[in-house]
Amino acid sequence: MNPTISAFESSPDRGRGLARDMRVRWALEEAGQPYEVRLLSFAAMKAPAHRALHPFGQIPTYQEDDLVLFESGGIVLHIAEHHAGLLPADANARARAITWMFAAVNTVEVPIIEFQNAKLLERDKSWYDERLPLVVERVRVRLGELSDRLGDAEWLDGAFSAGDLMMVAVLLRLRPSGMLDEDARLAAYVARGEARPAYQRAFAAQLAVFTGRSG
Amino acid sequence: MNPTISAFESSPDRGRGLARDMRVRWALEEAGQPYEVRLLSFAAMKAPAHRALHPFGQIPTYQEDDLVLFESGGIVLHIAEHHAGLLPADANARARAITWMFAAVNTVEVPIIEFQNAKLLERDKSWYDERLPLVVERVRVRLGELSDRLGDAEWLDGAFSAGDLMMVAVLLRLRPSGMLDEDARLAAYVARGEARPAYQRAFAAQLAVFTGRSG
Fold this sequence. Notes:
Two copies of one chain form a homodimer.
Chain A: E1 4-8, H1 21-31, E2 36-40, H2 42-45, H3 48-51, E3 62-64, E4 67-69, H4 72-82, H5 91-121, H6 128-150, H7 162-172, H8 184-195, H9 197-211
Parallel strand pairs in A: 1-2
Antiparallel strand pairs in A: 1-3, 3-4
Helix pairs in contact in A: 1-4, 1-7, 1-9, 5-6, 5-7, 7-8
């Protein structure tokens, strides 16, 4: 039986592919693994039935036979471990790819979420205009460090891996802000991720939920 | 040869065990793996030689023969995969433990870092007093959800795992704020983590850097 993931019934970003189910869809497409999707309203996401699967009442979840997972990083790593194409065979390179997954969600995404919280949750506050540059600067520091490490390489460490998948997905959260285009190397890196056929299929699938048109 | 980790030469938290090397020390102690420590000044941490190991100029790093890792989550998972005691043998339970590692750093730690940024970086700002309750509330929501899931269980999913190690370490960042003690279940959960002999050994080792007294 195919695994089932959960996603927003009404995409909060109008199908721009920024919700976290996109990371899991992309990984499944890279792996060539068909999957089912269970769509959830915002209310259903916070209801006890979904909380039983996801303690924090969010998407995505991942169900495969009697296994239930609930965090995009954990799900992507699970997929990467059970299919070819997302983790190198060499043990050291594999450990480094996993470290990049954690760097994406714990070092790069943290200031990006703080930036998005400011934009989405504090736009009407008296401090918004004065505080935003501080938060933007925290994001820029991380982007600069990441860009320095990437240099002219195609991917973060050798061939494309689950580390790149998570990093590109995290960086894409910045697309609406225009910040991504300030660094040519990172912009090209993200564009390489988006150009992958697996990304394209995943993007089309999540967009179809919003437009109501299948494949 | 024993692996070498890096840590702060001058502990910013005066040896309270809140720096991220603590997570790696604890995992190594759980694994029974001796290790060496390379201490870094703040300047050395941002210098090119260290940046070659850690793109974001932080601690901890992990060096083992020709493998270099740089993110606490990635390092702890690497240790957990190569030693007994931090991941269950059952494949599904193992995937769930890893999902809890990601939940710790990407769902629970994110608002905690935002809270700490407010306390450490924005204390002198005009908006500090008015904004802080908003940020505190974001943390409380996550803590409440985590507490609901934990319930009366000893650990998050069966036996103690790397998922608990990361979660306890993340929650400990809240200790100075007093917020941890607002929830009896979470406070007891963290106390169980701290009571583990491996935690105690790791804590003593990081404290010795600050006090200048070895073991």
